[in-house]
Amino acid sequence: MAVTDSAPGVERLDVVDEVGRYLRTAPRDEVHQRGEWHQVFHCQIVTLRDGVPTAVLQQRSRSKAAFAGLIDVSAAGHLAAGETPLDGVRELEEELGLSPASTDLVPLGIRRLADDSGEGTLNCELTSVYLLRDDRPLTDYLLARDEVDAVLDVPIADLLALFGGARSITVQGVSSAGHPDASEVTFEVTLDDFVPGAEYWVVLMVMAQRFLAGQGPLAV
Fold it and tell me: What is the mean pLDDT of the chain?
């Protein structure tokens, strides 16, 4: 049975070829079971905290079917049938309670991924990747409890050190941000606490660092 966060047959995705050309529309669980190419949205929020280049990450809900409890990019999700990459901005509202304009997102390009993790027997994604600068404190986020357990501020240099071989780093954030029981959290994490994809994480964090420094070009 496919590992999926949506009921079988409910969510429909556009099936595309390996360069993104539309082929047909099919239920999400079927797309993953068949290992067909489909489109995904990623947005990495970045900020400066007391002058320190920082990535805002999410800890996925422990109730999620895929990668439960692991640390992920700020917002991510599948593009539904008929959606364009920038329509994925809705993920920021749905998961984090943010409502940026699509013009605020900085495109990094498309990441092509084929692996055996996530949903189904073979996962084939074309991921449109964006950066967004947002300087609000984590306490101003409003988390969807079924999607996200906590938001975290992690210095980009610490993340690069971890993916470069450091044993662990300390992360800080807010659990249940935006809800009455919100609380500050601090804990140690290792590579095993992150959604897999070390090379992607490194490229994304380097691009985030360059973006905050006003440097280019930017691409994944």
Answer: 93
